[in-house]
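Changelog excerpt

This revision adds worked examples to the README so contributors can see how folded entries look when concatenated. The first example is reproduced verbatim below.
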Amino acid sequence: MTVTKVNADVLDLTDAYALSGAVAFSGTVTGAGGMNYISSVTASSSASVVFTGLTDTYDVYEVQFVQVLPATDNTQFSCNVSQDGGASYLTGSNYKHSIHGDNSAGGTSHNYSATQTKWHIASNTSQGNAAAEHLNGRWNFYGLADGQKPTSCFSGGYGDPSGNNTRIHQYGSYHLNTSAVNALRFTYASGNIASGKFHLYGISKT
């Protein structure tokens, strides 16, 4: 098979290109925009999952969580922020949220609060620890390292948290403190994270 190499100095990425077959990139590709993979954590009887080293390189960070399951029955999945690199996490009543949820049985739920001590993906619904009751979804964080405006987030998750009905939740929130956030911690309200995968991405500014 003939291999054609393209001189990057003469490749105009403003033009339209159609690539076929297997395309392999080497080196560092920059300036392309989009979602950039940063790191992953696989939980296994873990007290928490933590991502540190967050900077203003990205305006938006996204954490995807896959088949996350608690060790303790009837508990809630949550997140706290840190402003000192993960040495401590803010737990004051400065987390505001609004949540909407639906389930496959036709039920709906809503929850609002201005005085939470952490972000919950579904603060009015607890999750079970049976194998089928895992949680999947994503959490988007905006302006974490801005240091001028409150950090805000949006999350969406689905699963079978009660063992009876598939549920989907949409969650919007912000933290009142305007200092830069540089670490995130995911926990359950009680007990460990029995299993699950967490993937961190940064969304390019351009």
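The second example, added in the same revision:
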Amino acid sequence: MELNNVYLVWLEWPEKCFRVDAEALRYLRTAVPKGSRVLRTRSEAAFLKALPKATHAITWHFKADWFAKAPRLKESLPYLTLLKPNRYEAELLSGVAIKSEDDIRTAAEAMLATGLKRVCISLSEEGLYLLDQSGEELRERLPATFTVCNTTGCGDAMTAALACAMAEGLTMQEAAKAAIRVAVLTAASAETISPELNRNVMFYS
């Protein structure tokens, strides 16, 4: 094994999270070159002990307060027109562990049962799922290939595109495509807000 292909990864998260490990592995596929050796640790002590063996190090921490915020939104769901939770937020708000395509719809239905008008669950590289009170649903996936430079801001860009599309009176399909388009554009930029992002790119590309 080449010395420059050893990546040390420290993953830390609250024990009660449903699928953080699977999400972490998906993240690693974009952060670590293929063929590299990955050393995974779950504590600071283990990380420091293994550090001399690696030439690259990645730390990824899920803080408990991130997950504590989502459940506090439950009582407000009946008053919302649109909610865009990620996979974990959807699990926490719905009580459904999302492990399959059927689980995605079940989680969305549980949130809509509160009176929420429309929900869009973002699913990282798996795209998004939209469902509204009328029963209209849409599953939009990411392109087969696209550039990933920095994923910070992708969810925010997606949410902004959805809200803007709704304000413009676009269809659910048009809104979903706009959301995917800006998320991909954001991922390809080294900046949190892509300098290429504009109205024409969002709706007319």
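Reviewer comment on example two: The beta strands are 6-12, 37-41, 56-61, 118-122, 128-132, 137-140. The helical segments are 20-31, 44-50, 64-69, 87-94, 101-112, 154-167, 172-187, 199-204.
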